[in-house]
Amino acid sequence: MKAFAIVIAVAVATLAQLTITVPPSVVTCELTRISWSGGVPPYFPSIIPGGLKGTPPLNTFPPQTGATLTWLVDLVPQPIIVAIKDSTGAVQHSAIINVKAGSSSSCIPTSTVVVPTGAGGDPTNSPIGNSSPTPAIHDCAPSVPPVARVA
């Protein structure tokens, strides 16, 4: 009976441990797949500024019951972190991911504030161009179908 209780406790602890799989970089206005494992659904993914854990998110997504999210990267080039929170309150952060400029910036809201990552300069508020090629997908979990697409 004790052995059974230990097995259950280890299984619950393993289930609760969240891990995130993300690409090392993403491209503005292209699709990117983010995946995670462990934890307890539903999951609450968000994108936060790179190196600034605890700050308000740049993007939040609807609760997810699956373990993947396909995201149309609607951010200007900057470092970001993916955060996943599960229903128990456990949170996992990815390593810093760089958003790189794409061939289009039409998916970026015109009210986006650009936060400089280098020395000097103030945040600016400017409208972005409006070309719209078919987005490519950067896939870090190729055999898993997308759960949600946020534009």
Explain this structure.
- There is one protein chain.
- By secondary structure, the protein is mostly beta strands.
- It has one domain: Sandwich (Immunoglobulin-like).
- It has 1 helix and 13 strands.
- It has one helix at 2-16, and strands spanning 19-21, 25-27, 31-37, 44-49, 59-60, 68-72, 78-85, 91-93, 97-100, 113-114, 124-125, 137-138, 149-150.
- The strands form 3 sheets. Strands 2, 4, 5, 7, 8 and 9 form a 6-stranded mixed sheet that branches. Strands 1, 3, 6, 12 and 13 form a 5-stranded mixed sheet that branches. Strands 10-11 form a two-stranded antiparallel ribbon.
- Strand 7 (78-85) and strand 8 form a beta hairpin.
- It is elongated and about 60 Å long.
Specify the CATH architecture.
Answer: Sandwich
H and E string: HEEEEEEEEEEEEE
How much of the sequence lies in strands comes to: 25-35%
CATH fold naming: Immunoglobulin-like
Number of strands: 13
Query: Quick one: overall form?
Result: elongated
| N-to-C CA distance | 51 Å
Work out the helicity level: under 10%
Tally of distinct domains = 1
Q: Report the top-level CATH class.
A: Mainly Beta
Signal peptide: 1-21
Keywords: Signal
Protein name: Secreted protein
